[in-house]
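LAB NOTEBOOK - FOLDING QUEUE
OPERATOR: T.R.
BATCH SIZE: 2
PURPOSE: Compare the predicted structure-token outputs for two unrelated chains run back to back under identical settings.
PRIORITY: normal
REVIEWER: second-year student, initials M.K.

ITEM 1
FIELD SEQUENCE / FIELD STRUCTURE:
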Amino acid sequence: MAVTRTATRFEIGPLKQADWPAVARIFEAGIAGGDATFEPAAPGSWQEWSDARLREPKLAARARGEVIGWAALSATSTRPVYRGVAEVGIYVAPEHMGKGVGRALLGALVDASERAGIWTLQAGIFPENRASIALHERCGFELVGVRRKIGQMPDGRWRDDRGTQRAAKDRLAAARHAWIVNGAARRSPCHPRRRVRCAGVARHDP
């Protein structure tokens, strides 16, 4: 997939534990911006961050070997009926915003999620975060409702969030795959979470 709006060359591939310093730095930049998350700070370690998310997909955008953005999914519920529903988390380094990185990451995340058996993606976005709203809309997410004063910021402010979601192209196939993968995972005493391989590297050039 070509990126024509920027001279930045980047590629999308799996996120690794060694990328944690960059992941934390980009996460902290998003927190500092004030409109990305309710979280007061990035987790203290890769393990803490990773344990709160699905095993895969976890993706990174890299330019000249440097992580300039990341995307990952979190489970929305422990109930089996929602095994194919996941929450999107996507962050791009401030100096690389507006260059197509976010769209490439989210597009790759959508594709990888469907291969992993996810049939619905959802994202809660602050109404003030116009860039994120536009990004998700371009990638097929639709507004399903607004949750009023759903969470409290570290400074005490209560804020709304816009609930958006995107259904898999073939929801039935995703559901079947989720049953297979989750069934295998439950039978494994060492890996209770899903074990799904992510796609190979996708390059993005101007």
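ITEM 2
FIELD SEQUENCE / FIELD STRUCTURE:
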Amino acid sequence: MPSYGSDGICDDGGPGAEYPDCQYGTDCEDCGPRPLRASPPLLPPPTPASPAFPGGVITCLDTCAPSPPFSGGTYYVSNGICEDGGAGSSAAWCRLGTDCTDCGPRSTYRPPPPPPRAPQCSNGLPLDLVLVFDHSGSMAPVQAQVLEFATDLILQLDFGANASRVGVVEFDDTATILSYLSSDPNAVLAALANAQQASGGTSISSGLASGLTVLQAGGSWGTRPKVLLLLTDGFGDSGANAQAATVRAAGVQIFGVGFGSANPATIAAISSSPASLYAFTAVDMATVRNHFHGQFCSMIISPRAPPAPPSMPQICLNTCPYAGGGSCNDGGPGSEFSYCAYGTDCVDCGPRPLRASPPLLPPPPPAPPAFPDARHHPLRRLPPLQDLLDRRLRRP
């Protein structure tokens, strides 16, 4: 280390110093004696961060690691980039609160005790509902809002063995069943509270398939209406439309709800008809929550949706050269392109009802016979006028 003492230049950072390369008072020959500085007053300890939500827990860990882990273990920790998916983070590779050095302490949400229930479906009609929520990495910043939205929906229902039963599914790259159908609202809310930090991709088809599994496991298929509400902010996967068609064909009403980057055409294709009732897209979760607040119950129970008409024969081929590309190309309802024949892009468009053949037209009437020349004309067979006159003159 270089020595700056006695070099003719004051280097202790005090008044008149030219450089601050040395500690205050340690370059006496060049700077002269320095008066002692009073020690700065001790600062009070920092106040712990308050939870962002009632019942929140402050988490500050440095346990973030890639999945699957690379060599080096905690690859994302202390790299100067906040990657826990929380407010101000650059990415969501870590669970909230596990990249503390880069992000600081985080408040992880734990829902408060549910408020007193004031159900708006007090008519006690039976209903089976499964909530299927996107749990991909892009949902991490709004995960608390999603839980509040789910709680709002649940508290609109009248629970009971002969009333509402609710199940919960979350999906990212795969789907996880958090709760099978339950007539206990507290059990359903507890299942929602056990949801892990959002991460991963967006497999809508997996969420729909698991939602159907939950409804089928509940039985009572002929006596209890079945409803599935799917919420996502993503584009989904190539099999989403076909899986939605399978769910609808089983007699399930699908409410499709999208926000953020969700494609309205995809939401409409997934949902039951009419889309004006069953499909809804918005810019953010606040708008979604306002749309369903206090009226979700009336959408699904009062009045009841009419029974689905008997299913028509369907066509489901994948002979289209663009099948499996993620875009519906058969020119049918909801398709994005019409490059292929109707019903030949089943993996992207779902099964299509057979189109009725146009009615056969009656055969045309026969053409009148042609007369090549006057000799064949029917009038030629009549006797000439002169012959008739001659015959009259010859009569006695």
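REVIEWER COMMENT (ITEM 2): The beta strands are 57-59, 106-108, 127-134, 164-171, 175-182, 226-232, 252-259, 279-282, 314-315, 352-353.
FOLLOW-UP: none requested
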